[in-house]
Amino acid sequence: MSMMPVQDAIDAMLSQVMPLHATEAVGLTQALDRVLAQDVRAEITVPAFDNSAMDGYALRSAEATADRLLPLAGTALAGHAFEGVTPAGHCVRITTGAVLPEGLDTVVMQEQVQQTEAGIRLLHAPKTGEHVRRAGEDIAPGQLLLAKGHRLSAVDIGLLASIGLAEIAVLRRLKVAVFSTGDELVAPGQSLPAGHLYDSNRYVLQAMLQRLGVAVLDLGLLPDKPEAIRQAILRASDEADVLITSAGVSVGEADYTRQLLSELGDIGFWKVAMKPGKPFAFGSLGSCWFFGLPGNPVATAATMDLLVQPVLRRLAGEKRPQPESLQAIATEPLKKSPGRADFQRGYYQQQNGQLQVQAVGKQSSAVLSGAAKANCYIALEQERGQVAAGESVQILPFYQLLR
Ligand SMILES: Nc1nc2c(c(=O)[nH]1)N[C@H]1C(S)=C(S)[C@@H](COP(=O)(O)OP(=O)(O)OC[C@H]3O[C@@H](n4cnc5c(N)ncnc54)[C@H](O)[C@@H]3O)O[C@H]1N2
Ligand code: MOO
């Protein structure tokens, strides 16, 4: 079977999946990482009134010449406006956030005046409008603040609160089932018999899914027994929108997952031209989508990040910007054979005014310790060969799921 280029594999999956429709209202404290089901427009003006940006004195700039003495007409505190008219030649004591008194146009910081018994004396003349926050300078009514399909960040949630919304309509949370398979695997916390290793993939996957804001259904660590795997696949297809498995998609005798999936569902199996992550299965089990990831731990994480993530985001209704890609100078040679795109684990930093990158740790797809030191992939094109020190390479900073 010929290998499919990475972008073709992503495009093929994206063209098949349709976003969720169902929506729900959630309170702001539950809204982080949820995807907006509708555009959000402001119904109010923010700030709603002209107010002071500083603790100081509000005055009329036309009367504010240096050295002039301005008697105090009263006080405006945040939440307690100064009522009435300020007589000519007077000022009002004001605190940050307080309503600017009627007729006054400028605020002078208290550090810029001399306070005397008879009033304040200006050290220099202020600019008209200085330290005044104008009504509507943040948000005007009707303004589009956040678009449908936007994933809510912490700052977005503050923005929603600032226009007075207590709840927001979001798309239903995607439900993703996960299991790992392998008679050689043992759950962390257990003792390790000879010839065994700990199941790490299910933990990497669940952590990445948590960052994506989806609901996770953990179907556990399964032995290489077709019946156990069959039951887990059936449960996932009943209860979840997506099933993600690790291992069992290659060509070994005990690679049952792939066989069972083609029996129970409609499975496309591809060899994707990427390293790590060559064997990869995608398909459907009724209304449940399925991703079969290769078992090697770095291949699991990389295929989840690079191939599955865009599809999950689309299913969740998210309109996602392209991940950031930068150019950096390789400070050391990089091994590469043509035929597959490499996603080497690298560490990049700014040095001598340029971005520099080097591969970290062993690059085997079974070695997680190198990946744990990395902050980016060094993405080497499919047909590219060895990279010499000083050559420019593309890097993909780890984005959201892996850091
Ligand atoms: N003859 C061939 N052999 C292999 C090929 C191939 O094309 N022809 N591809 C290799 C590549 S590349 C990968 S990746 C693996 C993928 O194999 P599977 O997805 O079937 O996974 P397994 O063989 O079961 O396991 C691979 C490796 O990963 C370890 N593993 C599995 N699950 C976990 C887990 N949950 N946590 C930690 N480590 C796990 C497992 O012990 C194996 O060492 O196939 C190659 N072989
Ligand atoms: O997916 Mo494998 O190397 O490409 O580990």
Automatic annotation (TrEMBL):
Domain MoaB/Mog: residue ranges: 177-314
Cross-referenced InterPro entries: MoaB/Mog-like_dom_sf (IPR036425), MoaB/Mog_dom (IPR001453), MoCF_biosynth_CS (IPR008284), MoeA-like (IPR038987), MoeA_C_domain_IV (IPR005111), MoeA_C_domain_IV_sf (IPR036688), MoeA_linker/N (IPR005110), MoeA_linker/N_sf (IPR036135)
Pathway: Cofactor biosynthesis; molybdopterin biosynthesis
Keywords on record: Magnesium, Metal-binding, Molybdenum, Molybdenum cofactor biosynthesis, Transferase
The protein's Enzyme Commission number: 2.10.1.1
Cofactor needs: Mg(2+)
Catalytic activity: adenylyl-molybdopterin + molybdate = Mo-molybdopterin + AMP + H(+)
NCBIfam families, per the entry: Glp_gephyrin, molyb_syn
Matches recorded under PANTHER family: GEPHYRIN, MOLYBDOPTERIN BIOSYNTHESIS PROTEIN
Protein name: Molybdopterin molybdenumtransferase
Origin species: Alkalimonas delamerensis
